[in-house]
Design a protein that fits this description.
Elements: H1 4-14, E1 16-19, E2 27-30, H2 32-36, H3 38-49, E3 63-67, H4 70-82, E4 85-91, E5 99-106, E6 109-116, E7 125-133, H5 137-148, E8 152-161, H6 168-171, E9 176-181
Parallel strand pairs: 3-4, 3-7, 7-8, 8-9
Antiparallel strand pairs: 1-2, 4-6, 5-6
């Protein structure tokens, strides 16, 4: 089974920086080469899933949520690895039934996220998964959505944390597991 270091090395080796995308001054971290490499992808899923286990390897969450869009790619296999359900956190207007919604600031704009009101049952423990922790706004909004459903956000697992943007000012005391800090 791959270890955390294998996942970190794969991220460092395969992530491609794309300057000035999606707008001038932003450096986009393209993880598609990581996803295309079976061994790298397996290693990162195993490493991210560790955030949903205790020190003895027992699963300590009931659901995994993934934030649109790259968080979906990571969170669904993490949920499978943990043997729990997956719940998508979508952009506004994408879910067909009654939702909870939260608006927040992004690194380069604003957004609104939604979750089905019945997506998380009261008392369920939830691991939040995304690709990049930038400003912390997406994680904070997602935690609010989990709590609006009555769930308990137990932590967040991400591939990369952009520490220069000080994202932990918005994540508060929420445990953050990151594979690579930039």
């Amino acid at each position: 089974m791959p270890d955390r270091r294998t996942a970190q090395e794969a991220l460092d080796r395969l992530t491609v920086d794309v300057a000035d995308w999606p707008e001038q001054g932003v450096t986009f971290k393209d993880i598609t080469p990581v996803l295309a490499d079976h061994h790298a992808f397996s290693a990162i899923i195993t490493a991210l899933a560790a955030a949903g286990r205790d020190d003895h390897g027992s699963v300590v969450v009931d659901k995994v949520v993934g934030m649109e869009a790259r968080g979906f790619i990571l969170a669904a296999p993490v949920a499978l690895a943990l043997g729990v359900g997956f719940v998508p956190i979508r952009k506004a207007g994408k879910l067909p039934r009654a939702t909870h919604a939260v608006s927040y600031a992004l690194e380069y704009g604003e957004a609104t996220l939604e979750v089905h009101q019945d997506g998380i049952a009261p008392g369920e423990r939830v691991l939040m998964v995304d690709d990049v922790l930038a400003t912390g706004g997406t994680v904070d909004a997602t935690r609010q959505l989990v709590e609006a459903c009555g769930g308990i956000a137990t932590g967040v697992a991400v591939l990369m944390e952009l520490s220069f943007l000080d994202p932990r000012r918005l994540t508060g005391d929420l445990p953050v597991s990151t594979l690579l800090t930039i």
